[in-house]
Amino acid sequence: MKYKELLVIYILEILSENSNPEKRILQKDVQEILDLKYNISISRKTLGKYIFCLKEAGYIEGERGIYRVNKFSDNELRLLIDSILYAQYISAEEAKNIIDKLKNMSPLSLGNKIRNIHYVEAINRTNNDNLYPVLDNIDEAIEKQRQIRVTVCKHNINGELENVRSELIHPYYIVNSNSRYYLICYAGRENRLENRRIDRISRVEILEKRAHPLEDIIGKGRSFDLGQYMQEHIYMFSGDSLPIRIRMLKEHIGFFIEWYGSDYRIVEEDEDYVTVRVISNENATYYWALQYGNIVEVVEPIGLRNRIKEGLKDILNKYE
Predict the structure, then answer these.
(1) What phi, psi does 46 have (nearest 5°)?
(2) Contacting residues for 238 by C-beta, under 8 A, at least 6 apart
(3) Which long-range contacts (CB under 8 A, 24 or more apart) does 133-141 make?
(4) What's 128's DSSP letter?
(5) N or C: which end of the chain has fewer CB within 10 A?
(6) Residue 171, phi then psi, degrees to nearest 5
(7) What's the CA gap between 218 and 215, in Å, rounded?
């Protein structure tokens, strides 16, 4: 038989395309498709041996009708498709290709149900063609604990990325926030961590010099809590975090929790209003307060409160 070596693959492809736990396929149907699609004639007894081996190996299941065991459930595939669909760090063409591959992992169930693929073009996606090589090099540098020299780029008035400067940094963590990749790093300014948008980096050179240990930056004896850091830097602005008090109607607490999570403390409460205390990055809270200024009020610190007041005045002056 000319294609005997590929027969197992063909059987699995037939099951992937024509069956699922709700719609199983009979052995005689597999025989017919092998003949029609692959021009392979095989006895039912021989096919039964292959199916038995695939069952033993856990690739297929079923008695009166069989189906291929997928690695992901349809719900899990939907989650993966949605994550690709709204990921701004993936180009539109690449997003379409990946989504098609995910849909084909469960074609009977998802093939005609995922109709939101046309949203791919509408989402503001990166045009940094070097994103993945940049990510790989940063990841390697973190693994080797090496310093890196990065070339920083920004958009010009034509929407094209152009290089603007190079920078020496010490990389520690790659994180994803608001559908964008960021690098948590040390850039030599005081003893504080900073964040860099990775889609604004066009090139990475891994240096021989070792990166400063993270504990030297945050202080010896202190542990770094990545989850806490991400919670305090909701917009990934650099800078230190500080205690902040925010007042709002109780009915609006959900907007606060969506961004800051549940790590806060209620310090004042009456019938209608609640004041919470949270540790957060000042710059991030400034822009968050401008975004939700109609339903929240920053009470303390006074410096941040006054900064928000001046920011609102500047906005108002632009529209008067």
Answers:
(1) -65, -45
(2) 192, 193, 194, 195, 283
(3) 133/204, 134/198, 134/201, 134/202, 134/203, 134/204, 135/174, 135/181, 135/198, 137/204, 137/205, 137/206, 138/171, 138/174, 138/183, 138/198, 138/201, 138/204, 139/174, 140/206, 141/171, 141/204, 141/206, 141/211
(4) -
(5) C
(6) -85, 145
(7) 5
| pLDDT tens series, the chain, 320 aa | 456 678 888 888 888 888 878 888 898 899 998 888 888 888 889 888 888 888 888 888 888 888 888 777 777 777 787 777 767 777 777 888 888 888 777 666 565 554 444 445 555 667 788 888 999 999 999 999 999 999 999 888 777 889 999 999 999 999 988 778 899 999 998 888 999 999 899 999 999 999 999 998 988 778 888 888 888 887 788 877 899 999 999 999 888 888 888 889 999 999 999 999 999 999 999 999 999 989 999 999 999 999 999 999 999 999 98
Residue with tokens 């919670």: 231
Q: Where are the strands (E) in 108-236, listed by range?
A: 146-155, 161-177, 180-186, 194-197, 201-210
Sign of CA dihedral 78, 79, 81, 86: positive
Tokens of 108: 């009977």
Q: Name, in order, each residue with C-beta under 8 angstroms of 82's C-beta and a sequence gap of 6 or more.
A: none
Bridge partners, 66 (sequence order): 25
CA dist 144 and 90 (Å) reads: 26
| Strand partners for 245 | 277, 300
Cis upstream peptide for 301 (omega within 30°): yes
For residues 198 and 135, is the Cβ–Cβ distance under 8 A?
A: yes
* 15, burial (CB in 10 Å: exposed 0-12, middle 13-18, buried 19+): buried
**pTM of the predicted protein model:** 0.62
Indicate the DSSP class of residue 275. Answer: E
User: What is the chain's percent helix, strand, coil content, to nearest 5?
Assistant: 45, 25, 30
